[in-house]
Amino acid sequence: MKLVTVKGQTKGKERKTLERMRQEQEEDPILAKIGNQLRVSGIAKLSTKYQIYQGLLFKRTGKSRVWKLCIPESMTRELIKEHYEYYGHYGAHETVHLLRESCTFTAMRRTYSGWTPQNRHIYQQVPVKFRVQNRLETIVEFMRTEMPVEDQEMIEKSMKETAKYQDNFEVYIQTLISQALDSNFLTEIFQEQDDYFLSNVKCVDEITEERKGRLLRVAQWKPSLSNSVGTWPCFNFITDLPADEKTGKLCVACDKAPVAVRVQMYGQPYNSTTLEGCQPDPKVASQKDFLVCAVCAGRVKLYNKVAHQKYLMYIECAKRVADKRLSDPKKDTTVILNELLADEAWLNQLFKTVRTSWAEIDKLEHQAKQTVPSSNKT
């Protein structure tokens, strides 16, 4: 087994790095759980994939079955930065590639890749300003809005706390992949009361429901908007509004701030348990159009992510299943399932997407608690 080192480090600093790596592995929710299981019971199934060597956790990966050091999430950026400073003349892409020869990252996706429709889920749209654009090159400026340090710390704290649900989430995704492969799967496991799948789905659903409640308490919307966003899985924002739709008018959701955005809901309502299409509540059927303020528009986007989390994750799974079937129509469903579950980068990205939404709600709740109404000040 190969211990990771940073080129150019002194022996003393190298020892400190490895000692800190041991400590961080023991504190990392995912790695600590695996390490404890190995130490206590030496589970045979685990020992074929993970081993402890010189107090450090290693994972066997890839077709070559090489043992790679498990890097805790808390040290990922630092390790890449230090190696880049040494290998920088190769470029960032090559630095990460060199690290992956001896390391595996618990919460890292492939950062450098060409854009294709198949990997669009790993990209996020960001605001930019075009500085140079011609036939030879395009140079843009990233319009970054810096997040206050306290908010960033709150996000990181929440992300770390929810990392412990990775095992539950992977079974949750396994359930949704199975539903994409067999449209009766969810109905059948509920009819059979299959505890393995249902207990893990329930775990993730309960965390999401709790976050939904927190967001609604912060937003204090009128029921018409929250019911509509919870019913319709899709929406459009229209910001270019005529003057008569926004001048002198207040947000219909909070009744506090001026109108800035028109939100239009659409899509197929569905049963949240089985994901089968259904008819909407008659009271909500005509409630699809709302004039809201900028703050409520942002919260509509966030609430949509948690209210339709299972549906949105199912759509991602269904896309990947469709891609697999398109590339090989004769491929067995079990093979497709196993291939998708073996795609750690994809699973980690889905888990990060869900946890980021949970963390954003935790941040909003924290901000709301920190805001003291002027009438209560002494």
From TrEMBL:
GO terms for cellular component: nucleus. This is DUF4211 domain-containing protein. Pfam families: DUF4211 (PF13926). InterPro entries: DUF4211. Coiled coil: none annotated. It comes from Timema poppense (Walking stick). Residues 152-275 form the DUF4211 domain.
